[in-house]
């Protein structure tokens, strides 16, 4: 299989995965590295290539986007874009190895929260006799730091967002999926602006362009399918994605 075909298929898979359950970076990044790009360049190129797919998915989901608790969508998007820009700066200025070491543990945390967060939330709220939730300011702080991670590396950042929203304000992972898609798109857009002007992605435009085309196709198709899935099935897809990415990264680690 040629590098072009490999990258195109990886783009389709990554776009669809981001639309349905998150984790598209874990498909896009290895494909670009296998096609010959250095890891840091491939990481930046994957972010750039997945932006149009994320935006197309966000467009499909736009009627279903809801605030996270009492935190407005506009404020959440501002935190996402600010964090994404900071993360992109860190990727270009610092070595990636230290953060990559933490990725499996972040994914493991996200998987546990997605699997047990709602039950734990109900149990704690019942024990306290009142709802358990993050304040809007706390939600924005969490969103900013998760978006820094998203701009720096990006793998399964949407899964981590859903985890925080689930345990923090009781957002159902299926109901929060449209908001996840739009916030990941905001992170990618902010990071892409910096990557295009400050990294060497533009010096090797063919592979990111091919992946971009595939990601748009996968993003639109994946979003259309996800909107028609029952809530229980979509939660299973999101959790299955989290488990798979956690296992893969511990094995690679």
Poorly predicted regions: none
Total strand segments? 0
Helicity, in percent?
over 70%
Q: Please outline the major beta sheet.
A: none
Name the overall outline: globular
- Rg calculated over all Cα atoms: 17 Å
Percent of sequence in beta strands: under 5%
Instruction: State the end-to-end distance.
Output: 27 Å
Which secondary-structure class do the elements indicate?
A: mainly alpha
Number of helices: 10
Mean pLDDT: 81
Give, in order, the helices and strands. HHHHHHHHHH
Could you please describe the fold and organization of this structure?
This protein starts with a helix and ends with a helix. It is mostly helical and 253 residues long. The chain is 79% helix and 0% strand. The protein contains ten helices and no strands. The model has no long low-confidence stretch (mean pLDDT 81). The longest helix is centred in the middle third of the chain and has 32 residues, at 97-128. The radius of gyration is 17 Å and the shape is globular.
Topology:
Layout: H1 3-20, H2 25-34, H3 39-61, H4 73-93, H5 97-128, H6 136-152, H7 157-169, H8 177-198, H9 206-228, H10 231-252
Short description:
The protein is an all-alpha fold. It contains ten helices and no strands. The model has no long low-confidence stretch (mean pLDDT 81).
Jot down its keywords.
single chain, 253 residues, globular
């Amino acid at each position: 299989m040629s590098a072009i075909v490999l990258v195109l298929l990886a783009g389709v898979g990554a776009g669809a995965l981001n639309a349905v359950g998150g984790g598209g970076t874990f498909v896009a990044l290895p494909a670009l590295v296998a096609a010959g790009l250095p890891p840091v360049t491939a990481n930046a190129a994957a972010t750039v290539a997945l932006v149009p797919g994320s935006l197309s998915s966000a467009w499909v989901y736009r009627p279903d986007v809801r605030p996270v608790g009492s935190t407005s969508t506009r404020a959440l998007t501002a935190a996402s874009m600010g964090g994404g820009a900071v993360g992109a700066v860190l990727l270009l200025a610092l070595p990636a190895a230290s953060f990559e070491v933490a990725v499996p543990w972040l994914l493991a945390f996200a998987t546990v929260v997605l699997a047990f967060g709602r039950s734990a939330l109900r149990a704690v709220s019942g024990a306290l006799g009142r709802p358990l939730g993050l304040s809007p300011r706390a939600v924005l702080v969490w969103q900013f730091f998760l978006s820094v991670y998203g701009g720096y590396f990006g793998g399964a950042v949407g899964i981590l967002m859903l985890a925080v929203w689930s345990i923090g304000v009781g957002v159902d992972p299926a109901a929060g999926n449209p908001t996840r898609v739009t916030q990941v798109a905001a992170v990618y857009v902010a990071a892409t602006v910096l990557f295009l002007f400050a990294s060497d992605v533009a010096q090797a435009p063919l592979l990111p362009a091919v992946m971009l085309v595939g990601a748009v196709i996968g993003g639109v198709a994946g979003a259309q399918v996800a909107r028609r899935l029952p809530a229980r099935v979509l939660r299973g897809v999101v959790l299955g994605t989290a488990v798979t990415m956690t296992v893969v990264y511990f094995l690679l680690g």
